[in-house]
Amino acid sequence: MDPKCINVNHFSQGSYAGYDIRFSSQSDDELTQVSPYTPCGEYLRRFWHPIYINDDLKDLPVALKILGEELVLFRDLSGQLGLVHKHCPHRLASLEYGKCEEHGIRCCYHGWHFDTDGTLLDAPGQPKKLNENLKHRIKLGAYPVLQYKGLIFSYMGPIGEIPEFQIFDAMAFENMEMVPYKAVFRCNWLQVLDAILDPLHTSFLHSNIGRMQFSEGFGEVGQMDFFERSVWLLGVNTRRVGDLVWLRVNELVLPNFTQAGSAFAADGTERRLYGRSSFTRWVVPVDDENTMALAWANFGERGDPPEWNTPDGPELIEQGEVFNRNYEERQRSPGDAEATEGMGSITIHKNENLVVSDRGITILRKRLREQIRAVRKGQTPARAHRAESGCIPTYGGDTILRISRSGDHDEAQILSNLAHSFMEIQYQADAMNEQERVQFVSEKLIELEASALG
Question: Closest by alpha carbon to 46, among 154, 190, 156, 143?
Answer without folding.
Answer: 156
